[in-house]
Amino acid sequence: MYVILVYDIGEKRVGKMLKLCRQYLNWIQNSVFEGEITEVKLKELKLRAREIMKKEEDSIIIFKSRNERWLEKEIVGLEKSRLDSII
Q1: Verdict on whether the full-model pTM lies above 0.70
Q2: Mind listing the pLDDT tens digit of every residue in the chain (87 residues)?
Q3: Is 35 helix (H, G, I), strand (E, B) or coil?
Q4: Which runs of consecutive H residues, i.e. helices, occur in the chain?
Q5: DSSP string across 67-78
Q6: Could you tell me which CATH number the domain at 2-85 has?
Q7: Which distant-in-sequence residues (6+ apart) come within 8 Å of 2 by Cβ?
Q8: Domain residue extents for the chain
Q9: 48 to 41, 44, 45, 68: CA distances (angstroms)
């Protein structure tokens, strides 16, 4: 499946969450990631994220799609991280 993950995490935990999300998805902008991921890997990511998060303060939003082709993406302004530049 294709997902877009957005997080709002306290300053002290942002570095850990960034590092975690980069292990599973492609970073595209501050606190925003996207990419193909299996159901099992997504479950693992959420489990590990909960260990970092403070339930009362932090949140993650995950948008799911069967495939990237079902999602139209438009970038206005500077693209922070181009996926096609990865070798």
Answers
A1: yes
A2: 999 999 999 999 999 999 999 999 999 989 999 999 999 999 999 999 999 999 999 999 999 988 766 777 766 766 766 655 444
A3: strand
A4: 14-22, 39-52
A5: -GGG------S-
A6: 3.30.70.240
A7: 34, 35, 36, 37, 64, 65, 66, 67, 68, 70, 71
A8: 2-85
A9: 10, 6, 5, 24
